[in-house]
Design brief:
The protein is mainly alpha-helical. 59% of the residues lie in helices and 5% in strands. The protein contains six helices and three strands, in the order βααββαααα. Strands 1-3-2 form a three-stranded antiparallel sheet. The protein starts with 7 loop residues before the first strand and ends with a helix.
């Protein structure tokens, strides 16, 4: 039987982590968290290390990693290994994606700037023309 001295109920985890109970339940359902058991009333019980795990999840998300990617990393960690190499690969991929997005945004910025610099009052509307400035390509 579990000793409840070192475990925390979901409400305590929510208060300590600053995350809503609903988010913690969702992470548990996805398999990102491990519960230590349940109370007689059915409340989830978590080991104190759940707070470090939640901090890791939030930090990884802030770096653009998806919950499924994070789940993969945690699975490696739960097997007793550090997932740093896997995380590095994913972050390198994210960096390349961001660089491509920046290039695409710069092209879009130039295109929008060109459209706006030549903006004129539109001629009278016709049935086939919604906005001539945009439709002339």
């Amino acid at each position: 039987m579990l000793t409840h001295e070192k475990t925390m109920r979901i409400g305590e985890v929510a208060r300590a982590s600053g995350l809503p109970i609903k988010t913690i339940r969702y992470y548990d359902e996805l398999g990102l968290l491990k519960i230590s058991g349940r109370t007689e009333g059915g409340y989830r019980l978590f080991a104190p290390d759940v707070l470090a795990r939640l901090r890791f999840i939030k930090r990884a998300q802030s770096l653009g990693l998806s919950l499924m990617e994070i789940k993969e990393f945690l699975a490696v960690y739960d097997q007793g290994n550090l997932p740093c190499d896997h995380i590095r690969e994913k972050l390198e991929d994210k960096l390349l994606e961001i660089e491509q997005q920046i290039q695409q945004l710069q092209i879009l910025k130039q295109e929008l700037g060109g459209l706006l610099s030549g903006w004129q009052v539109a001629p009278t509307a016709s049935a086939e023309t919604i906005c001539p400035i945009i439709q002339q390509s």
